Amino acid sequence: MTQLSLVKVSKIFGAAKVVDGVSVTVEPGKVHVLLGENGAGKSTVIKMMSGIYQPDEGHIEIDGETVRIPNVDAARKFGIAVIHQELNMVPQLSIMENLFLGALPTKAGFVDRAAMRKKAKAALDLIGLDEDVNTPMGELGVARQQMVEIAKALMQDASILILDEPTAALTRKECEHLFEIMEELKAKGVGMVFISHHLDEIARVGDVVTVLRDGKYIDTIDAQAPESELVRLMVGRNIENQFPRVAQEPGKTLLKVDHLTRAGAIDDVSFEVHAGEVVGLAGLVGAGRTEVIRAIFGADSYDSGSVAVDGQTLPKADIARTIAAGVGLVPEDRRTQGLILEASVAENLGLATMVPTSKFGFADLKGQTKRENETAKKLRIRMANVDQAAGSLSGGNQQKIVFGKWSMANVKVLLLDEPTRGVDVGARVEIYELINEITANGGAVLMASSDLPEVLGMSDRVLVMSNGRLSGGMPAKEATQEKVMSLAVSHMDEEAGESR
Amino acid sequence: MTAKEAKLGYDSGNTTAMDKVKRFASRNGALIGLIILCIALSIATPAFLTGPNMLNVGVQAATVAILAFGQTFVIVEAGIDLSVGSVAAVSSMLVAYTGASMGMPPLVTILIGVLTGAVFGALSGLANAYLKLPGFIATLAMMSVARGLTLVISDGRPISTSGMVNFFGSTVAGIPMPIVMMIIMGVIASVILNFTSIGRSMYAVGGNMEASRLSGISVHKTQIMVYVLSGVFAAVAGLVIAGRLHSAQPQAASGYEMDAIASVVIGGASLSGGKGKISGTFIGAILLAVIRNGLNILNVSSFWQQVVIGLVIAFAVSFDTLRRKVDTH
Q1: Does any CB of chain A come closer than 8 Å to the CB of residue B215?
Q2: Dihedral angle of Cα B249, B250, B253, B254, to the nearest 10 degrees
Q3: Which end of chain B has fewer CB atoms < 10 Å from its terminal CB, N or C?
Q4: Which residues have CB under 8 Å from B104's CB, separation 6+?
Q5: Nearest-angstrom CA–CA distance, B230 and B81
Q6: At A471, is the secondary structure helix, strand, or coil?
Q7: CB contact, 8 Å: B292 with chain A?
Q8: Count of CB atoms within 10 A of residue A397's CB?
Q9: Residues 6+ positions from B145 with CB-CB distance below 8 Å
Q10: How many Cβ atoms are within 10 Å of B197's Cβ, its own excluded?
């Protein structure tokens, strides 16, 4: 089995040393966790392991011998495979074809489908994935797509598996399944590199942790180390409280959802959110949390029921009027739904207010620029200047822009869908402080999240959805992970509303 | 200079001026190319850099530039309009027809022409927004429909135009009206794109349609408006073409859509949307006209001109793509 070592490697881009003298050794049958905030250099380290980048200083050893990994193909020959955060899949092609992408088995120049099918089935069996190999990849959920990627890596005899934030888009149950597979791979002697922003997962699957900060090697410690120690190493200071929720006295009802129903997605959902309150919306992926939030915002229509903000009933599926009534949405995926990545920070901040503030068809460019600058400053967005492309900022700062967009629009009700997905610990606390600020100013927040500790830590009240229905609710003080999970699965056996 | 830069041997103090020049050059590739081309042509032949020839280049560039200004809206919004040549033809044909065969007053015929452009554009836009037809397909269909209708109305024969229409192709006090029209339309396009909310929405929708929609920007309205504007600009270009020929020709402006698209793309716009400037488009259109004019003066056959134009487009766009790649690292 293979042992992979990076010895004092550095990588320089222009004037910046993004990785500076980092040493990591991935041992067979061990899970090596790479920990660090966004921009700490984890991705660059992975790219050096997988042949995408060459180290500018230091060297790479495989089984004690110094090697060069000039490209991805060479890495594969060394048995190194990467499961990227953004999966490399062709959604239109079948599982089988994706498994053999770039290496189709042929017979006399024609694709040998029989051999392909047999090998594909064997590969899926190996990781316990029960799925027809002819199913188009795009019909699978993220978790299953990931399983297929792992199966593909194993099929190519990978002995070092690099998992770049594999759990970011998975539910708890799916994560657990992934961890079981990782344990089986460990038993088979596969060495793994694991990246995750969820600290609780580190002790669960990790053996050792290497912490990076600002491209520098900080320490390698046992994965069973307490979370507070990991956070301290990662951010270089103590973070007193991961969830600094400051509760307010709830005021009048700001958001009232009444018997909201959409066939196949939302089943008679009613609840209220008061001024000063953060209501957490928990549930498994596919339980209908995103659907409820999008229906409230007007991004999708609904069959019956109503949504009212501050006593005023909102029209169905009319985003512009919903925003005018004082509602904002921080969507599930900021990169595809929240931001124009190539546009500047300023333009993104002004996105929701550009049309409403225009007069006689002319945009209020001067006023907008002033407000954009103020908002960027107020939210402490870390950037060179407001003309920088939003896509070049870290996940946390990108998310702050999305929050800033709604702060500029002066919304009373903010809908959050996975507000800290892909955001590192330090920036996460800053996002939470933004949430506190909104409620302190009399706003109401509805927050859907798959991150249960976050829901419990930042909400005042927790609502749980299961299979399109509201299966229960409780004050956050009384909520536990067990209580929430049992509510989340309570309607699971009823009909086929929930999919994969 | 930070410690990091010092360690790497970077000397930010001395290179700033040079860096600025380099930066400007890499961001204005088309302009630099145009200047170099003009210098080369001035050296190669004394016939190039003369007043009359410059005006000639301007007139040659005018119709394509006007079409390209309209096209810029569409490309910024991440669409494409293949119908501009045909729409220019059909609207100018309607101007001539309503004037010559129906005896309508010239001013009314011109309004009808502009309205025709708007209506054809609106149809493409509606198909794009509500039938979810990709702009390429909607306008490919419209290209055929509009050209076909031009032939139907004219019965395949040119129709002569009124004096008021011919004014758009005339020269007044030594100044060719096509150039004046190009400048007016360029300024209008620039104002729309930079200062109006609909213009800013084009950049937003072209950059990320879903994020724009979820920010309350009316994506449908924007999609329809870009094609309407493109149609109106095409109609104005049609007036200029008819004015120069004193008649509406059934095959007028055929193939011009490609020159218009090329101008926009040479000018730095991205076909994936969200990027593009009227000034860039203007330079693109002038560059194409200068190449044609220069090759004509140098007696290069028009067959070879097509080869050269094709290579210029490929070179200009790959230069731009490479620059962006370098910029992101």
Answers
A1: yes
A2: -150
A3: C
A4: B98, B112
A5: 8
A6: strand
A7: no
A8: 23
A9: B86
A10: 21
Total residues found in chain B within this entry? 329
**Spatial distance between the Cα atoms of A279 and A455, rounded to a whole number of angstroms:** 9
3-state secondary structure A172-208: HHHHHHHHHHHHHHHHCCCEEEEECCCHHHHHHHCCE
Tell me whether residues A355 and B218 touch, CB distance under 8 A.
yes
Structure tokens given for B111: 């309004």
Taking the Cβ of residue B325 and every Cβ of chain A, the question of whether any pair is shorter than 8 Å is answered with: no
Question: Which residues from chain A sit within 8 angstroms of residue B222, using beta carbons?
Answer: none
DSSP 8-state code for residue A443: -
Structure tokens of A433? 């402080």
DSSP β-ladder status, A253-262 and A208-213: unpaired
Tokens of A436: 């506190």
Contact A256, A246 (CB under 8 A): no
Are B329 and A336 in contact (CB < 8 Å)? no
Tell me the pairing of strands A208-213 and A31-35: parallel
DSSP-assigned letters across all residues of B158-190:
-EE--HHHHHTTSEETTEEHHHHHHHHHHHHHH
Contacts of B212 in chain A (CB under 8 A): 340, 351
Low-confidence ranges of chain B (pLDDT < 50): 1-14, 329
Q: Would you say residue A421 has pLDDT above 90?
A: no
Find the angle CA(A472)-CA(A476)-CA(A482) to the nearest 5 degrees: 65
Give the CATH number of domain A253-488: 3.40.50.300
Q: What is the C-alpha radius of gyration for chain A, rounded to an integer number of angstroms?
A: 24
Residue B214 contacts residue A351 (beta carbons within 8 Å): no
**Alpha carbon of A330: minimum distance to chain B alpha carbons (Å):** 9
The pair of structure tokens assigned to B118 is 């708007």
ipTM of the complex: 0.85
Topology of the domain covering B45-318:
ABC transporter involved in vitamin B12 uptake, BtuC (1.10.3470)
pLDDT tens by residue, B57-106? 999 999 999 999 999 999 999 999 999 999 999 999 999 999 998 999 99
Structure tokens at A499: 């999919």
Q: Do B197 and A16 touch (CB under 8 A)?
A: no
Strand partners, A216: A20, A213
A495, with CB counted inside 10 A (0-12, 13-18, 19+), is exposed
- SS3 assignment, position A250: coil
A220 burial type by CB count under 10 A (0-12 exposed, 13-18 middle, 19+ buried): middle
Q: Where are the alpha helices (DSSP H) in A272-332?
A: 289-297, 319-324
Which of chain A's residues have a Cβ under 8 Å away from the Cβ of B1? none
Nearest by CB: B216 against A331, A339, A352: A352
Do A15 and B201 count as a contact with CB atoms less than 8 A apart? no
Q: Domain A4-235 class?
A: alpha beta
Closest CA to A214 of A80, A351, A350, A41: A41
Asked whether this chain's domains A4-235 and A253-488 adopt the same fold, the reply is yes
- The residue type of A332 is E
Identify the H or E element spanning B176: strand B175-176
Verify whether the Cβ–Cβ distance B211 to A356 is below 8 Å. no
Both tokens of B242, joined, read: 């008819």
Instruction: Give pLDDT tens digits for B220-241.
Output: 999 999 999 999 999 999 999 9
- Residue that has been written with the tokens 């660059």 in this structure: A44
Sketch the domain layout of chain A as residue ranges. Answer: 4-235, 253-488
